[in-house]
Records
---
Amino acid sequence: MTSRREAWIGERAERLEDPPLVRGAGRFVGDISFPRQLHMRVVRSDRAHAELLSVDVGDARAAPGVAAVWTAADVADIGPIAFRATRVKGLEPYRQHILARGKVRYVGEPVAAVFADSPYRSEDAAELVLASYRDLPPILSAEDEPGPFDAERSTEAHVLEKARGDIDAAFEGAHATVEIEVSVGRHSAVPMETRGAVAFHDAGRDVLELHGATKRPHFNRDQMAAALGRPPSSVQFYEGQIGGGFGVRGELYPEEYLVCAAALRLGRPVKWIEDRWEHLQATNHSREQRHRIRAAVDADGIVRGVDNIFLHDQGAYIRTHGVRVPDMTAGMMPGPYRMPAYRSRGHVRLTNKTPAATYRSPGRYEATFVRERLFDAVAAYLNVDPVEIRRRNLIAAERMPFAGGIDTIDHEVVYDSGDYAKLLDKALARAGWDRMQAEMSTRRANGEMAGAGLALFVEKSGPGPADGVRIRVDTTGAVELLTGGASLGQGFETVMAQICAGTLGVDYRRVRVVHGRTDVIDYGFGAHSSRATVMTGEAVRIASANLRAKAIEAAAELLQAPADALDVADGTVARTDRESGAAIELGEIARRLAPGSPLLAGRDPGLSAEGWHRTDLMAYPYGVHVAAVSVDRGTGAVEVERFLVAYDVGRAVNPMLVDGQLMGGCVQGIGGALYEEFRYDGTGAPLSVTFADYLMPTLAETPPIDLLLTEDAPSPYNGLGVKGAGEGGINAVGAAIASAIDAAIGIPGAIDRLPVTPERVRAILREAGKA
Amino acid sequence: MTAPREISLTVNGEAHTVRVEPRKTLADTIREDCGLTGTHLGCEHGVCGACTILLDGAPVRSCLMFAGQAEGAEIRTVEGLADGDRLHPLQRAFIDRHALQCGFCTPGFLMLALGVLEREPDIDEDGLREVLSSNLCRCTGYLNILDAVRDAAAAMKTGPE
């Protein structure tokens, strides 16, 4: 019976989300409208750095259909956008105001907002807003000397330091020091749906509603309420379907504040849908870092210590995440290696470009690229095989849990479980590594440029502090699961329904998962950092177990049977100690627990239960990526011929969805490795503002991707043993491809930056006399 | 120039008479005036393909056309794909193959695939890859979409059972 009860957990179950989506019946934010709504258009700075002398809105206000035009003076009572996640002090002055005050610091910064009765008319009027500027010299690279942010402050907002072990001793006693300089280009999530927000003030109830929320609805609701001087209970956030997030969606940006304030003050619903041109210069960028990193190595290739100095290009302001991206870069840099001494110093510098924050595997895509480039350099220096050099430095399975002695995002990094060497072996076997190397070397001998490379990584998932879930069964036996979690399209509802179904003993299709709603549940921590299955999933398991116990307790009384002889399966409580006998459906139990029922005998009515999961520990999945590439000697173009993602997820609730996460992440990673980059000209004007300039992979650029999903190291920190699945597909793609290109062109360490454009490859080949 | 004008559109076999400004795009008109919000806008400059519909059987970017240009044409959108409760083989295959995650690009991919499979039911692998490379998806990594369209091509040839 146990196996039957848990059947849904681990199934490749069809997604509950899909039927409306394939019919075009989803409700994305653009699909939500209210009668008499106004449409907001944001007027954005076309200067990278300038004093904002005046904003003339006279003509715009007089334009047809215009209800209002706002500048900074109209929202002077609303403060800068608060941090969601940082304990670092001193960053507050670098926050962004919702409309520029006195200065603009990037092209795309909001300077005015137009509200009109149609989106077309709001755009017409926006063109009539005349801002005048006095240009200031822009800072366009974190490698430039810091300059003034304002009268008191430098553009170097923070220097982030972490260390463990005795780094000086490591270098003093080393056989050799290997040093490299590498960098990752500016790119970002770019989900297919742009941002959007619809605010509606229901004056009858005095409730302000914001539609289009996601990621952290509860926290953001509280922030919005505080900014507007309202009690949180009078501001409610609603999540509908969301067209992808990957880190950038669902944070508070200026536009959410503007539509909420306007809905209250103008007395009409206000809708804002970002266009793609805006998205590419207004929504968070990410990833841009330059590292100088050196390793102290022994003659046998053991890395004794690593010293990492890096420059983080934050863009114009510090947004909701504070300095989390460089923090995670520094905290996750050691990866799967022992590296007993480690020191990191990250300079967080503001530049006159779009503000940057998290993008899928934030800090780790960067750190893995840098670390794995360093290990390749060590291997080349010592003339040891790159796989062998890694193997010698891996943390052994017996040392788990492994406390690294450093922290990230306010948590000590303690790898919970893992057998890195085992996964490496499995990945090499699955890829046919030896055969692959032999084939590549034959092809190279025949004049082709082809090669294979690999990279190892540790991911992180599920920061606490807690997650709570409420479940109730109605009189038809349908299950409603209320969670403060959120969904960005990854299959959250299906996974939560499977965990509930498997634990409670019902069909997962009978479970309705309600999420992203501040009005139905008091607390919520949303969906980010691969936390949903680890944190919300465990809360679902606990709540479902509580509900099951309650159902059995009631059934025991109703059936006059001992509780330990009862089990729940397919929504029915029945005796397990007899072939046939009395049974009762969950819906019937719910009916018998209605208010006034004699069965209650003083207990609260209803068949419902709550469950909380609390932990400060994170789960650390891990993986190996293998890439095979060829390089066109003439054009410099890189083709990824095939790719392997090997990943230990602890336990997969729905392997089909985990595979989907890994595959989708992998292709995004290929984009960042080869194609995607936000470029700027010398004045700070963005050059990547359409999909003709910002190049994302299509099917044509997608290689065959093999997935090896393992469950060798369940997390000891939750009842299911699950670890996060969202970021393992992307983490090491840049690193593995760089290594493969080095091998293909026969120049160790040649690839020192991402993306690897054809132009860059051509320059490398020319310089080496190989073009 | 911006004075609204009455036009008639045929969408999924149904006649819609709408009053729109001449500058209004076909995508906006389908969404706002016909109330069919399954056609999505991902870039509004003709690259991503989320707004792909069939116009007289051919896949087109509805963000790149004015509504007035579609007068007299047969327009098909994702809402017309299923036959009541029965999903179209393409819709079924997208679910079976996990060819969607957030679902935002899905209507565009479905209509793109429908357009090509109706015209070229025997399209080869390279041809299919080429056609499906005209739309963007940021979640799935595409390979499941290719598998789904391949499955649907086979199912469409055998017809409904």
Note: Chain B has a mean pLDDT of 96.
---
Amino acid sequence: MSESQALISVLLIAAATVLTRALPFIIFPSGKETPAYIRYLGKVLPCAAIGMLVVYCVKAVKPLEFPYGLPELISIALVAVMQFWKKNTLLSIFAGTVLYMLLVQLVF
Amino acid sequence: MNLKKIASAVKSSFAPTIPVMTGYLFMGAAFGILLQSKGYNFLWSGFMAVVIYAGSAQFVAAELLSKAFNPLNAFLVILMVNARHIFYGFSMLDKYSGMGKIRPYLVFSLTDETFTVLYSAQPPQGLSQKAFYLCVSLMNQIYWVIGCIAGGAAGSALPINPRGIDFVMTALFVAIFADLLREKQNRVPAAVGVFASVLCLFIFGAENFLIPAMLLMALALTVLKKPIERLAAKYE
């Protein structure tokens, strides 16, 4: 794509992002009480949404073809185990990413 | 607010942003390197960090920018990727009322990380909630912009093979997800999220599963409201 097309794409992506952040504040302006149902969703949806994002990240994996999603599976397992064990988010992310890069570049 | 006051506000708000600083410099640099590998230099990564300012959206954007021009698709994909922000907004409605002129910026800069810090941390002694919110939000974005520019600039200089670096996004979500799973009351909503997504991925395929998955999730969480709230009350 050309530079101006890229610029248009970036600005639209920025608009979509700000829309998702501003929407609740547009629907419920200052001073109005948030309904209990919305407060409930605000509590449970972050967990569900982040679970969805994990799935979203591995959506392109083809479990029936070589390498059978093994680099993703192994690296995700490392991140999860390190996070449960050490609780150091950055260390978990760093270790998982380095392992994944090594696996896709050198092993598989 | 004079200079001395600003300096002291920044200083006392710094501590809760340290984890975000480390993460944003690292993630921002990873993004800059990725974007550079798609043919967009550090000016692009810096510009995107200023106007978009969303980690996962920018990683997806790097992918979109390396494909054919399709603005409507880009807009819709990012709406879906960032749809979770809607629920952060719902959680901050009360805290952000009465923020006056800075409210639009606070809303614009409500990333996962800024939300987490501002939702959990209390303003330090002697600092107003307003000043604290502004300092944390602005410092976090500055870290992100610096990281993105540095990665974009270094990416063009370093002869590193970037293949696989986009896994940093997956790793971030997995790490946050693992943290959430530690809290027992989160496990049912988390399972609903994963199960709905995997089910819709099989039915609708990789390109179209997000929206049906979100609808299914909202439906399932609505149906399960009573048992989930009962469990939450039990574990609190």
Note: The mean pLDDT of chain A is 89.
